[in-house]
Amino acid sequence: xxxxxxxxxxxxxxxxxxxxxxxxxxxxxxxxxxxxxxxxxxxxxxxxxxxxxxxxxxxxxxxxxxxxxxxxxxxxxxxxxxxxxxxxxxxxxxxxxxxxxxxxxxxxxxxxxxxxxxxxxxxxxxxxxxxxxxxxxxxxxxxxxxxxxxxxxxxxxxxxxxxxxxxxxxxxxxxxxxxxxxxxxx
Length: 186
Fold this sequence. Notes:
Shape: rod-shaped
Strand content: under 5%
Low-confidence stretches: none
Order of helices and strands: HH
């Protein structure tokens, strides 16, 4: 009977060791899955940010180029107008001044429109970036929930193992105490 108890204790310990090893393997798999998901989310977010940045840079560059072309056109128009005024005399000065003011006003209107378009684009791009950030945050929250749930399951299994091991030790101690009592006649 003593041999059977030792065998049962060794079998129980070995079963507990196998269960712990199995849980460790599961924990490694969960960790690997978490790392892969985090890497994917970060990579995807960086690609989105790169795309948005490139688009913003292109739009701003185009707007500046367009503004410079408009400014060159206005400058040319102003120069032509000034040359006409000097050539035609002082009598046409008021009319030329009016023409210059109109050209400048139109340029400001066009510049104002271009600025509005750039601002609208920047606002839209910011919204898209915010949406991408919120999407990535939701994925992180899902990942965290998955990790917590996996940890709770693992903790429950470890608790069961601990109680099983304590039960086995208790049984062995009781049997040993009974044997000692039997040997000494208590």
